[in-house]
Design brief:
32% of the residues lie in helices and 26% in strands. The protein has 678 residues and is α/β, with parallel strands linked by helices.
Length: 678
């Protein structure tokens, strides 16, 4: 008998009792037992705060991103083992890849974003400097620092790998340790996942902990610095959100709850069109992948009134080819639900739905199963319902969390937007149409009730990841019934685990606090050009001043002839004088930028490897023939790259005329080498 252990306070701990059996969803055989009896939940949280948090906060964003990449690579080597265990949850190989490969993909995604979009620092400086006084001596800026608590995960049973990893990735990148509490039905798969993570030795101790079994008094011990991430039913989310500790200590609580997601077939998508076929294919996939146990699955299928029969017949035909049974059989396309209890819950929900709809395909108690016992395993046939009266409440309020979807008719775009809103908040929705006007009306009308919307047609179908696939770069969550929260969303998900603080001070102090040069701070000008310095020798504030250089009319005309930019403001004196912004011929903005580069560059080979871009370019004052240009180039931000022999330097660039007025401002981005052997 295998009893799942919890990993808390630095060690694997067995429960104080024998635990509750966890059956194989396919065979009914016992896989393991689960209990959290005797596990000190308060000690687990304190260990995360005392050990895991400080260790992570010592690392930069880039170093944490490196840990995520290494962990993803390690787990990828153990996929076959995880697939085999996943099959015991009722998942087919395709289902398992959706869960396991998807979770590993989130780790890789956040590793990449951490390297590309976050600084190699322990603090994130957000937004631009805000001037708070007329004299330039009082400024403000926002800093984001990691919370000092633990990110507590309370996960659902349907994605025992993806669920923990999609929460772990942004928390770890932010600098917060995680405590994973899996749903009992499939906890044995999550437990093995955490064993692989711990045994790898890649993460600092206390970064990841595991609580197998009931939550018990876990939430009682939360502090103001902790975060709770919940996935599950809307009802459970409401109860947890109202916990006295969560309310009394204003604990950040992010809920991603099951919702009545919808898919809309456009009136243009008639039989014979690519969009009609895509709609049918997508609906069948959402009903059968993971046996319909996805929080993003299509529960409400909205179809134009005149196409109801066509869609019903096409979906019924495709569902008739779906083989249900043991995932070990390669011909099986849909496995079992996670447990017999879950199957009974789906049947109860179906009973309510049948008050407002009739079956088009499948029946609650009838299923043909391959290589398995339909009574011992939690099998269920896919069931398509048809509700010809979309005004009935049941399809918009009752969710059967399994392979069940309901067809409903709509009249026009306005009507389907109203019907979509009756779900009271959804994680995902889709519109299958090639009509941009219809798509715009439905997307903009339904967006306030949805966290994510997919428009699917022949243009994007080949690359589309589908209605039910959350992506790490985009938010996963939704309003109302869907929980009102957001997960992932790229760096947005990282910021959920950080505190944004407005800091007000003088420019020099702001430079010291942020590590980024702030206008108004003294510049450092020496005989050595900053381009002659290796990355380690550069300092924020190092400055080069070049010029002046006089801009002549010949320069303007030569630039126009050479580039082909003969816009009238540069070449036609009479027309330029009539322009209220200029009053005469002016130099090209890109001529100004080109001259500035010639003024600040140090041309000999050296540490500067490349200029890879400009950002925030603004032309502020017209430059006329006869004006003299001076450029001031200041090292604004220095970012070493982990594991590389170079880093990135952002230069504040200010081009001024003979009167001291700024004519152009922008940031120059360069790659600068480190000292040889550094």
């Amino acid at each position: 008998m295998v009893v799942l252990r919890s990993y808390v306070a630095g060690s694997w701990q067995a429960p104080a009792d024998g635990g509750t059996p966890l059956p194989d969803a396919v065979t009914g055989e016992e896989v393991a037992r689960i209990s959290a009896a005797g596990i000190d939940r308060a000690a687990a949280l304190e260990h995360g705060r005392a050990a895991g948090g400080p260790a992570l906060r010592e690392l930069t964003f880039h170093q944490r991103a490196g840990l995520l990449k290494a962990l993803a690579s390690h787990l990828r080597e153990h996929r076959e083992e995880l697939y085999a265990l996943s099959a015991r949850t009722g998942a087919t190989l395709g289902d398992s890849k959706f869960d396991i490969d998807g979770g590993i993909g989130v780790l890789f995604g956040y590793a990449s974003k951490g390297k590309r979009e976050l600084p190699n620092d322990t603090v994130l400086v957000e937004g631009e400097v805000e001037p708070l006084g007329k004299g330039g001596t009082f400024v403000g800026r926002h800093l984001c620092t990691p919370l000092l608590g633990v990110a507590v995960q309370i996960n659902a049973f349907n994605f025992p790998v993806w669920g923990p990893l999609e929460k772990l990735a942004p928390a770890l990148l932010a600098g917060m340790p995680s405590l994973i509490k899996p749903a009992s039905q499939t906890a044995y798969l999550t437990a093995r996942l955490v064993e692989l993570i711990v045994d790898s030795g890649l993460l600092p101790e206390g970064t990841v902990q595991l609580l197998c079994g009931e939550a018990g008094d876990l939430l009682d011990h939360l502090t103001e610095q902790d975060v709770v991430g919940f996935t599950g039913s809307a009802g459970t989310a409401q109860r947890l959100r109202a916990h006295p500790a969560v309310v009394g200590r204003s604990v950040r609580f992010n809920a991603e709850a099951d919702s009545l997601n919808c898919s809309v077939l456009g009136p243009d998508a008639v039989p014979g069109t690519a969009e009609f076929d895509l709609y049918v294919e997508q609906l069948v996939a959402e009903m059968t992948v993971k046996a319909g146990q996805k929080c993003t699955a299509i529960r409400r299928a909205f179809v134009p009134e005149g196409l109801m029969d066509d869609v019903a017949e096409a979906v019924r035909e495709r569902l008739s080819t779906v083989t249900v049974g043991a995932p070990s059989n390669p011909d099986v396309r849909m496995g079992a639900l996670a447990s017999l209890d879950q199957r009974e819950e789906v049947r109860r929900s179906l009973k309510s739905l049948l008050d407002a709809a009739r079956p088009v395909f499948g029946a609650p108690g009838t299923v043909a199963v391959v290589d398995a016992d339909p009574e011992r395993g939690a099998f269920m046939a896919p069931i398509l319902l048809r509700a010809d009266d979309p005004g009935r409440a049941e399809p918009h309020e009752v969710e059967a969390f399994g392979p069940v979807s309901t067809l409903m008719p709509y009249r026009d775009a306005r009507h389907v937007v109203e019907l979509a809103a009756r779900g009271r908040g959804s994680l995902a929705g889709s519109v299958v149409t090639a009509d941009p006007g219809f798509a715009r009306e439905v997307v903009l009308g339904a967006a306030p009730w949805h966290g994510r919307l997919l428009v699917l047609n022949g243009e994007d179908a080949q690359e589309s990841t589908g209605h039910g696939s959350p992506l790490p770069a985009l938010v996963h969550g939704g309003p109302g019934r869907a929980g009102g929260g957001e997960e992932m969303g790229g760096i947005r998900g990282v910021l959920h685990h950080m505190q944004r603080t407005a800091v007000q001070c003088g420019p020099a102090m702001m430079t010291a606090l942020t590590g980024q040069w702030t206008p108004g701070t003294d510049r450092t000008v020496t005989d050595e050009h900053p381009f002659r310095k290796h990355l380690e020798d550069l300092r924020v504030g190092d400055t080069a001043v070049g010029g002046p250089r006089t801009v002549t009319l010949d320069d303007v005309e030569h630039f126009a002839a050479f580039t082909g930019d003969t816009f009238y403001a540069h070449m036609d004196d009479e027309a330029a004088k009539a322009n209220p912004f200029f009053g005469g011929r002016v130099a090209h903005g890109y001529l100004v930028v080109s001259f500035a580069a010639g003024l600040f560059v140090s041309p000999e080979p050296g540490p500067v490897l490349a200029n890879y871009g400009l950002e925030n370019l603004r032309f502020l004052t017209p430059v006329y023939p006869g004006d003299e240009l001076t450029v001031t180039l200041t090292a604004k931000q220095i970012t070493p790259r982990e594991g590389s022999d170079y880093g990135e330097v952002r230069w504040d660039t200010d081009v001024t005329n003979q009167d001291g007025a700024s004519v152009a401002k922008y940031d120059v981005l360069t790659l600068v080498s480190k000292r040889p052997g550094a």
